[in-house]
Amino acid sequence: MQVAVLAHESFPDRAKTAVGLLRYGDHEVRAVVDRERAGSRVADVLPDVQDAPIVASMADVPEIDALVVGISPIGGQFDESWRPDVRAALERGCTVMSGLHDFLEDDEEFVRLAAEHGGALDDLRKPPDDLTVAEGTAGDVDATVVTTVGTDCSTGKMTASFELRDAARERGIEAAVVPTGQTGIAITGWGIVVDRVISDYAAGAVERLVQTPADADLLIVEGQGSLAHPAYSGVTTSILHGSAPDALVMCHNAGQEVVHGYESFAIPPLSEYVDLYEQMAAPVSGAEVVAGSLNTSKLDADEAETAVTDYADAIGVPATDPVRDGVPDEVLDAIL
Amino acid sequence: MQVAVLAHESFPDRAKTAVGLLRYGDHEVRAVVDRERAGSRVADVLPDVQDAPIVASMADVPEIDALVVGISPIGGQFDESWRPDVRAALERGCTVMSGLHDFLEDDEEFVRLAAEHGGALDDLRKPPDDLTVAEGTAGDVDATVVTTVGTDCSTGKMTASFELRDAARERGIEAAVVPTGQTGIAITGWGIVVDRVISDYAAGAVERLVQTPADADLLIVEGQGSLAHPAYSGVTTSILHGSAPDALVMCHNAGQEVVHGYESFAIPPLSEYVDLYEQMAAPVSGAEVVAGSLNTSKLDADEAETAVTDYADAIGVPATDPVRDGVPDEVLDAIL
């Protein structure tokens, strides 16, 4: 699929979906739409991802199949300044994909334009309407299932999932990420936003996801939230049990000690956190934490090296910062 | 409020809501509607709950404020044979309350009749539309918060909650049940069906519930599912963390060893299960399992006595079968 990514005034730092698409997506990105950086190229700011021109509006985008909204503002609302580009994409018969809380399908103009011009609206946060309770059959999947878990939200679970996938692919293993959030879904083109599923069906949604890929030998399930999170632990649990993993990779931000946004709640000591994940996994799949992923983006190189070593010691398994150091053999070996 | 309870061909054994309303509700039940048992009285089959006549249809029901659907068939669908009674209730200007999966509000005739006659439709499974993520503030509630948890679904969590409430009230304590399922909601007239809430907001829904009652000194939160359940553990976790309890009461069916409907999954050993609940509670509220509730309905009196003793030994805290033996002082003392 050939796509353009909408990222007005946000590329690259506040356009997580856009960057993810460029770094990990199977789509060809033919343009990034950002009126602030128009005229430059992706390679000027992000040298290690697929390159594309940055343009001011859909008028400068070559032929594409889909326009992906690559920005997730806090609150997830649609910004009216994006309307002309979405309108133009629909008038060209493209699909418009969005992970915003505001659904494109609730916008009368977009619905009308899509119908008139043969375009389509794909709201990535909208779960399928035929979900059911889990049957407890996720463990029957032939592939090795590895689920990324974390000590908090935003600890690099999605990034670790894609980096592990790419490392496995480099070794010739058929690997796929099982996306459970809108960014991962925008990157891969499939998945279910589990936090939008009614809680009765959340594990069932994940079970369906791990049973979907036909030809993968390694499935890396993108986790969400954390088991000790006062608000999101239910989502985490549903993914942990719904994916019935063979192994877990625990993701952490170096130095973080309290839950982000919930600072009165301490993050449990790392070795206890490993135990908590394993004890919760035990009744369903018996998965153990076999590797760690540490986000060291706030540290310098020396500090990062020490932090990764300390993290590996604390959790008793190999660890890496996959963004800084890639996925070393000992980490990939641990999950296989 | 004066109510009638619809329980066609199901009273009492397959009409859990109807029996719960009669046993624990604050409403006056003026009639049970069951065409199969019409002419007899509740006291003929259930001597220990509030009595009411059993009638064949709404035509024989005296003046009421609401008709409550007291049956929860598997699948939760509306049975067309109930339509004449719902219609008659709406034509009399009554509220009709239902915990079915099929929403009354999606039925055009019912909507029209309610509008025409000043009746109302109350779908108990429909969550409020202004829920949000939890803020992590449930622990600030002044009341003592006790959450019932279980080794599986249907282990008596709702019943234990109401029995604990009644025992506390007998001791002069202002106690209230915080209902999280449709039966508890039908009994008390308030609550949120947490399993219908999107998983992102499930803990937030429970947090809102425990912050609602103004004048209770003891809140007993009705738990759902179980932490080791392959399908429902996410709901359980959301209630465990969203209620931020001071103490837990663990409910179990005597002799049950595997998860009902998921028989390839063993129920963990009881003492390990206690540890699992306490380890999961630790990061948010530090609650411990302080008492046990055992369902011994399949045992004779001698077996039951032994089973309760064994259960208390296994979990290391006082236990009772609250239906058979009530709530002894040592159990009530343990939760206060």
Large-scale geometry of chain A:
globular
Q: What class would the helix/strand composition of chain A place it in?
A: alpha/beta
**Largest interface here, residues on each chain?**
A-B, 44 and 44 residues
Q: Helix count of chain A?
A: 12
CATH architecture of the largest domain in chain A: 3-Layer(aba) Sandwich
H and E order of chain A: EHEHEEHEHEEHEHHEHEEEHEHEHH
How is the quaternary structure best described? homodimer
CATH class of the largest domain in chain A, named Alpha Beta
Number of domains of chain A: 2
Here the CATH topology of the largest domain in chain A equals Rossmann fold
Mean pLDDT of chain A: 96
CATH homologous superfamily of the largest domain in chain A, by name? Answer: P-loop containing nucleotide triphosphate hydrolases
Strand content of chain A: 15-25%
Distance between the termini of chain A: 30 Å
The major β-sheet of chain A equals: 6 strands, parallel
